[in-house]
Amino acid sequence: MIMHAVVEGDQVAFAALYDRYVELVYSTCLRILAEPAPAEDATQEIFVRLWRKPESFVPERGRFLSWLMSVARNRAVDELRARGRRRRREAVPEDDQDLLATIAADGDDPEQRAQVHEEQLLVRKALTGLPVEQRRALELAYFGGLTQQEIAVRLDEPLGTVKTRVRLGMQKLRRALQDRV
Amino acid sequence: MTGAHVSEEQADEFAIGAMEPEIAALVALHVNDCLPCRLIVAESRRVTAGLALSVRRARPPRALRGRVFRETGISRPGPFTWAARIATAGAGLAAVAVAVAAFTGMVSIRGQVRDLRQENVGLQTQINDALAQDVAIKAVTRRLSEAERLSSEIRADAKDDRALLLAILSPESEIAEVFAVDESSAIGRFVWDREQQRIWFVASGLPARPAGQTYQLWVNAGGRYVSLGTFNTDSAGFVRYQTWAPPTIESSENAVVTIETAGGVQERSGPSVFVADLSGFR
């Protein structure tokens, strides 16, 4: 496990980890923050923190990729909130065609890249298979940094409806991504 | 939270970030100390991580890598750098290989040119040698030709000498002494071979005539001088002139050698040099 080497202070391992995941982290931050400069800053902070406190990742709590994406999402949302200008990305940020668009497999680790690519296509297919309301609720929460209450206000929907959409959407995604990601 | 633990629905709300911040803080505290709830949340995070993977991929600027490494204090190059360096080194090696190949090609071409030049020098030497030999051969040939010419002349002279000698020894020949008109030291003989109808004029100590002049031999036949031709001397002042006796002349009173213009004349007009009395001839 590459993170074991990073915990040991292996700079080469950290460099390899960076090269493998930086695009995913940066893309997530950019998706949330909508601007390259703060996305770069957030990405930098995430990896610097990862190097300085690699023990924050606990393998028993899940896969590294899931943890890293969670860290990236939370860091970007924190930044979004700190800037006080919530970027509401609820206006259908990516249409179905975009979601199903082919991803350029130009990474430096072909095997890892292919795996991530496959999972990415799987997620996109799962998202496009969701009802628009459910997908929108999930995206507003995950990428918009909105709570269910805020989503309800934004969409002018009852909180219970939003909760149901989030729950159903998550369940469908879970089934679609079973044993993956 | 349901009771003391986190439900799957709450874990999903927590993982996707849709939970109110105060409740999320409580869940986080509980998850830290509750392994079953931590696993449930981890599963929800696995699903929400898929949302992150669905994002359209964007490539960060390359400068970001340097920023991160500077911030972390990493000095050892990572695989990317190593790959880049290896690629660069590979490109460099390729360039060097190309340069070496090109250089080798140039060296090869230069070597070939050098060999050709050496071969050309060798050929030129051979040509020069052949030319020198040709010159030598031509010189030898010329000398041989000259020698052959001299030999031919000598043979001709010998033949003339032999003929003159035979004429002098022949009972059919008549010989008259030739006298110089002036008091020069020149001496000579006039020989007429009646059998062969040949006439010789032989003299020595006779100065060579300058350009534009010649000696001309005459015989007096019935009070009229008939030309027997012109001649000149060699560098030693010797002359042996041979001609055919005109068939119309059976006898002659005397013979005269005059100095005439080059090519000879029809009638004697120049000064006399030699005189031979032929009155004693038959």
Approximate shape of chain B: rod-shaped
Mean pLDDT across the residues of chain B is 81
User: How many helices of chain A in DSSP terms?
Assistant: 9
**Share of helix of chain A, binned:** 55-70%
Count of individual beta strands of chain B? 8
C-alpha termini separation of chain A: 16 Å
- Ranges of chain A with pLDDT <50 over ≥5 residues? 86-108
Fill in the CATH topology of the largest domain in chain A: Rna Polymerase Sigma Factor, Chain: A
Question: Which secondary-structure class do the elements of chain A indicate?
Answer: mainly alpha
Q: Which chains make the largest contact?
A: A-B, 75 and 50 residues
Going by CATH, the homologous superfamily of the largest domain in chain A would be: RNA polymerase sigma factor, region 2, helix turn helix motif
Task: Point out poorly predicted stretches of chain B.
Answer: 79-96
Rg of chain A, rounded, reads: 17 Å
Please indicate the percent range of residues of chain A in DSSP E strands (runs of 2 or more): under 5%
Instruction: Specify the helix fraction band of chain B.
Output: 40-55%
Features:
heterodimer; A: 181 residues; Rna Polymerase Sigma Factor, Chain: A; Arc Repressor Mutant, subunit A; 2 domains; globular; B: 282 residues; alpha+beta
Short structural summary:
Chain A is mostly helical. Chain A has nine helices and no strands.
Mind sketching the topology for me?
The complex is a heterodimer of chains A (181) and B (282).
Chain A: H1 2-7, H2 11-33, H3 36-52, H4 64-82, H5 96-99, H6 110-128, H7 132-142, H8 148-155, H9 159-176
Chain B: H1 8-16, H2 21-33, H3 35-53, H4 62-72, H5 79-169, E1 173-180, E2 187-193, E3 198-204, E4 213-220, E5 225-231, E6 239-244, E7 254-261, E8 272-277
Antiparallel strand pairs in B: 1-2, 1-8, 2-3, 3-6, 4-5, 4-7, 7-8
Helix pairs in contact in B: 1-3, 2-3
